[in-house]
Amino acid sequence: MEKFIVNQIKEIKEQVGDKQVLLGLSGGVDSAVCAALISKAIPGQLVCIYVDHGFMRKNETQEVVETFSNRDLKLIAVDASKRFLDKLKGVTDPEQKRKIIGNEFIEVFDEEARKLGKIGFLAQGTILPDVIESGKDKNSTIKSHHNVGGLPETMDFVGLVEPLRSLYKDQVREVGKLLGLPDYITQRQPFPGPGLAIRIIGEITQERLNMLKEADFILREEIGKLPKKPDQYFAALTNTRTVGAYKGKRSYGYVLALRAVETVDFMNASYMHIPHEVLSKISQRITSEVEGITRIVYDITNKPPGTIEWE
Ligand code: XMP
């Protein structure tokens, strides 16, 4: 991978020359490693747009901004959370949520990109599985897995910069580590483009979003202490309400589901046998620390027949 970095730096320099490059930074491993690599190859010529749709996990936006603010690139971080929440008012259908978020994302990205004027190249964190996947039959997917952040179609670029096209995920992580990215970026678990929005069943409100952010943070904190961590673990907020108590008073709050799976390829997955003491601690912490959540359940569904996400 050290040799890969040296070669890519040379190739990017040759391809781009003195032109500027635009990259959509999502906070995920691929775009982050792409940003680190390109900014090393052509310091000062990379512009990154990070659209915060408001559905990132707790602290994630700050982590992304901190990680990239001291690199040789221009970072434009847009807080568009209010716009997204407004557009999703009253929407409960999961596919519709995805569509609205996808469209809004492109709109915000496009608006920001236009402010920059003419940019030479567009960079993308495409990796080898994406290249393979895009050649397959799209009809076989159960639900739309498109990531948010499509291309601003009306902008004309001289070309595409995709330095990670030949790499598998573990190689991308290694390149990131060699380029000095922190573990919380390179070792990040998969996270859907529309973020926590698809882990809230029913309507998304600021209040419900805050609940999920706090509960998910507690789950990640406790599961993060396990010697062998699941491949993916998160919380999903259901729209079922149940009676419970919060700080000694009756409360009519939501049921929260905990999900933790072991998987190699995310096509098949087994629920993880988390020790009961750990589940118990998570349950106690969430119901006592997060107002509005009164009951915790652990998802023991494998994939198939279930999916990993709860939407
Ligand atoms: P499912 O729920 O279909 O998810 O079992 C399989 C894996 O894909 C992730 N996922 C996404 N990843 N953009 C992504 O990059 C998306 O829109 C998206 N939706 C689901 C999911 O978290 C799991 O790892």
Ligands (ions, cofactors included): xanthosine-5'-monophosphate
Q: Got a strand count?
A: 9
Most strands sheet: 5 strands, parallel
What does the overall shape look like?
globular
Query: Strands across the major sheet, in which order?
Result: 3-2-1-4-5
Rg over alpha carbons? 20 Å
Question: Pairing-aware structural class of the strands and helices?
Answer: alpha/beta
Proportion of residues in β-strands: 15-25%
Helix content: 25-40%
Mean pLDDT: 93
- Tell me the series of helices and strands, N- to C-terminal: HEHEHEHHEHEHHHEEEHE
Distance between the termini: 37 Å
Total helical segments? 10
**Unreliable segments (pLDDT under 50, ≥5 consecutive)?**
137-149
Write up this protein:
The protein has 311 residues and is of the alpha/beta class. It has ten helices and nine strands. Strands 3-2-1-4-5 form a five-stranded parallel sheet, sandwiched between helices. Residues 137-149 have low confidence and may be disordered. It binds xanthosine-5'-monophosphate. Residues 145, 147, 190, 192-194, 232, 266, 303, 307-309 line the site of xanthosine-5'-monophosphate (XMP).
Keywords:
five-stranded parallel beta sheet, four-stranded mixed beta sheet, 311 residues, globular, 10 helices, alpha/beta, binds xanthosine-5'-monophosphate, 9 strands
